[in-house]
């Protein structure tokens, strides 16, 4: 995988929950942490610092990738931060 991007998603929490996006050279990943007590860790296909997460991917050339970058910039502008 590649580098995380600022994301409208929550990110990881210390309890094994949360979600985020990763934009790599070949794929856009949506990662959903799956490490809480009671989660089925057998579904995990992404390594994290804990039990792991479930990753879904689309090609980086997908229009979804451009839409995510645009959304991140818009959110950052609304809260006074800097987008990508």
Essential attributes:
single chain, 84 residues, alpha+beta, five-stranded antiparallel sheet, 5 strands, 20% helix, 29% strand, disordered N terminus
Can you characterise this structure?
The chain is α+β, with helices and mostly antiparallel strands and 84 residues long. The chain contains one helix and five strands. It has one domain (3-79). The chain is 20% helix and 29% strand. The radius of gyration is 14 Å and the shape is flat.
Layout of helices and strands, plus pairs?
Layout: E1 3-4, E2 11-12, E3 18-23, E4 27-33, E5 53-59, H1 63-79
Antiparallel strand pairs: 1-3, 2-3, 3-4, 4-5
β-strand percent reads 25-35%
Morphology? flat
Number of strands: 5
What would the average pLDDT be, to the nearest integer? 83
Share of helix among residues? 10-25%
H-E string: EEEEEH
What does the radius of gyration come to? Answer: 14 Å
